[in-house]
Amino acid sequence: MPRVGLMVTCLNDALFPDTGKAVVTLLRRLGVDVEFPAAQTCCGQPMVNTGYLADAVPLVRNHLEAFDGCDAIIVPSGSCAGSVRHQHGLVAERSGDPGLVRGVENAPPAYELTEYLVDVLGVTDVGAYFPHRVTYHPTCHSLRMLGVGDRPARLLRAVRGLTLLDLPGAAECCGFGGTFAVKNAETSIAMGNDKAHHVRTTGAEVLVAGDNSCLTHIGGLLSRQRSGVRVMHLAEILASTERVVERRDERSADPISIGSATPQNQEAHR
User: Fold this and answer.
1) What pLDDT digit, counting tens, does each position of 134-168 carry?
2) Which residues contact 186 (CB under 8 A, 6 or more apart)?
């Protein structure tokens, strides 16, 4: 059986652990032997995006060591999957270290979660149940850098009880952009407000995406607007079953809160 490693990402590890747990639950339900290499850390994307490629070299080396021996790497984030696939090679090349270049070239393939489910496992119906109206935000890196296309929508349409609603302006950026939200806060908020407005027009109960970074940004704005729209990572929906939904509804009286995307987390990172 292939040995698959979960690259949970810094944000999920620190703030949204339920997303990582959902990925493990989902993959194991589908018969995948998934492991969590404890030595993993940041992929280096923040450094690369701000121009500090040399500072990302130790992180790329650590990534190669942590996932050595895996047949594939699964990433519940289009942003971080894109970093591994497209930025690690650039970091290695700029480092001037031929060994690091070879290491990146021979590294296990990194898949964004929906790519692995649809393209490698060949499934769209993962046995999920989620009886809610949902709209999907295709994050920039998954849409433009990875080209995941309609894979997330195909997976969502196969979820029993789920009604998938079209999101106006879906391809428009939400404005988070990592350090962009810090350096250009006013522009970031304006873009986020546009996205939040589009979400509210759909009548959806839940906004779903494949990146918790975007959900933190949009979810914070939706919470401030008291929209009643919850935010949730795609993996948590796909891992849901009748029993999971019942337990979650029992413990969550707040309409903004679901899974790990709590109002407290959203407030702290707005």
Assistant:
1) 999 999 999 999 999 999 999 999 999 999 999 99
2) none
pLDDT digits (tens, 9 = 90+) for 161-199: 999 999 999 999 999 988 888 888 899 999 999 999 999
- Positive or negative CA dihedral for 217, 223, 227, 228? positive
CA distance 44 to 63: 9
What is the spatial distance between Cα 206 and Cα 162, in angstroms, rounded to a whole number?
10
Sign of CA dihedral 20, 144, 101, 58: negative
HSE (side-chain half, CA atoms, 13 Å) at 56: 23
Please count the other Cβ atoms lying within 10 Å of the Cβ belonging to residue 14. Answer: 10
Q: Which residues of 73-105 are buried (b: 16+ CB within 10 A; e: fewer)?
A: bbbbbbbbbbbbbebbbebbeebeeeebbebbe
Task: Return d(Cα 121, Cα 27) in angstroms, integer.
Answer: 10
Q: pTM, whole model, 2 decimals? A: 0.88
CA 44/CA 91 separation, integer angstroms: 9
Residue 14: in which H helix or E strand, if any? helix 10-15
Distance CA(32)–CA(73), nearest Å, equals: 12
Domains of the chain: 3-120 (3.40.50), 133-268 (3.40.50)
Instruction: Give pLDDT tens digits for 99-115.
Output: 999 999 999 999 999 99
Please report, as a single letter, which amino acid is at residue 185: A
